[in-house]
Amino acid sequence: MKKQLDHYFHTLLNSYAILFFSQNKVFGVILLLASMLSPSAGISGLISISFTIAMVSALGFDKSISKTGLYTFNSLLLGLGFGAFFAFNVLFWFWLTLSCIFCLLLSINFSAFLGKYELPALSIPFAITFWTVLIAGNGYAAMGLMQKDSYVVFEIYSGSKVHIDTLNQYLGNRDIPYLISLFFRSLSAIIFQNSMLCGILIAIGLLIHSRIAFSLVSLGLIVAHTINQYTGIYPDGISNYHLGANFMMISLSIGGVYLIPSNRSYIWAIIATTVMILLVNGLSRVLGIYNLPIFSVPFSLLTIGLLYFFKVRNHVHKLHLTYFQNYAPELNLYQYKSDVKRLKKLNYINLKLPFIGTWSVSQDYTGPLTHIGEWQEALDFVIMDIDHQTYRLPGTKCEDYYCYNKPVLASADGTVVEILDNIEDNLIGQVNLKQNWGNTIIVKHAEGLYAKLSHLKKGSFRVKKGDFVKQGSILAYCGNSGRSPEPHLHFQLQRTPYIGSKTMAYPFGQYQKSNHEGINELINLNVPLTGDHVQNPVLKGSIVKAFDFQPGFRLTVTSNDQRQETWEVFTNVQLQTYIYSHETKDIAYFINDGQSFYFTRYYGSQKALLYQFYLAAYKINFSAHKVHDQFSLDTFRPNSYIQDFIAPFYFIKEEKYHNHTIEHGDGFVIQVKIEKLFAGSTRKKITAEIKINELGIYGFEIHHPELNIQATCASYI
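Predicted structure:
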């Protein structure tokens, strides 16, 4: 019963909040209260949404989707509209019940159909349902519905503004600037009201929910009002309802909900608002023939049309669609900015260097000797000694060279698609120009991604054509065949499976680079340069084991303030892995790519122990190299209102993460420093430690300026 009530209240509040593309429960409560300022509309809306939630639950639809309000908010609009248009009587409730059933049918079907194209249904089901009611009523009396004589109905039908004195008298204040009054009245019209007080409540809720959303609805009103002032399309001003339901909402949806907020998305919000004038005017005339109001149909049609327009682009450039909807423009922006950097590796096959130990790059991309033209994106590797020599004396035969007969490895999992193995090694200083590539193997790692390794030793191949190979498997041994004056390994990536195919630029996932002082630097998603001494990272077994969180793994964490949480690892249907706290219900998503562990998302309370661990273990390199990373700006809530308002254009805040690993006894201690910067100045520091031994993580500490936590961990399956 408790779960059912919890689901009901979450769905109820989300159904209100999602009218403004939000899932903020506080905003949902404010919208619910604001709707009650028009009691008949508010009560009708609440009953409609309650009835529809019950239907969705009883019919067995996906609870995770219904909980967002996507299936039910159209019924809420329907109830609000019924209460605004018609007076209560027995037939009112009868027709409202039937209309809710029809509206739910349309909502789910439209959502499923448009969802195939990753497009939203928006408020089209509500408009179609209400039009059907109006047409069926044939003047309302035939169905027993009694139309109200209200300002809202007059506005919706005529598209004319209501005189401002009505609202000024309501508030008892005649000195409110026109544009401010227009802003609040237009917001209230979205829930079928014409009330300054209602608009003020909605504006407060919108400001709590999102500063970017607040700025965009303001922008939509200003643009529409300004253009109308110059064109004179509506001499008495655009109606509050049309301003709210169409102009302000199109600015919000395009500027910050379905596009990642940026200066370009704001420009498109202005363009969309301008186009909306044409669409509202045209549809009003067409539907006026049938005595039907346009409601928010222009907004829905233009939003869907623009989204599809943006989706069919071949090149995204700098105007990005929201790939994961967080139902808040700030979250969409901050997490997108973070993911572009942190999850960039997911766009690539994780390639390792094709050898064991430290090798040196003798020729990199666009190397002047042989890496030119269509074959310029290639690398030549050799092994050097401390004197930077590639051979031991006398250096007259292949066996004198350090890299000769060393194993050559598969850079990633794949299938062997081509082998050439019939060419003898050259004498030192001589080359074979007739068989340029020498003995070669080509491995297919993915469609359009093939690795070619050349100048291999004849008869050294450990695999045959058609074999599947794992990353790190021995393919063959380094030789001196083909155009090779001395033993070396030629490595290139290409789009086609043929010997002689042109090369393509493609980074290695991670490698170590040694400088002249012997200090190793960890390089991510890059290609080494001539003279670089590189090797695959040497992983620390204890750290690898400590963060090997497989599904079913459980960890009990007890803190110094007597709190205890039990964490368990799960994998969802999208194959995303996460840690779930049974006591607090918080969730932390993470990725383990075999070389590092890093968190990607956290949903829950900032007081939870899981959140403190999320901060401390934000990114861990298994090779014990130092980490320098950056948090998404929504990590520490609440965020600065100033930053939120200007975020689409400029970032003045940073939240940086650093760690380094030291050996301690029979394990390691990962020491963490977190810095919160504002306008380049450090405002707050957080330090942490994660303690690891051969059994795994046995404790962690985190020290905030106002909070200190020491936690012990006990793991079990």
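Summary: DSSP finds 19 helices and 25 strands in the chain.
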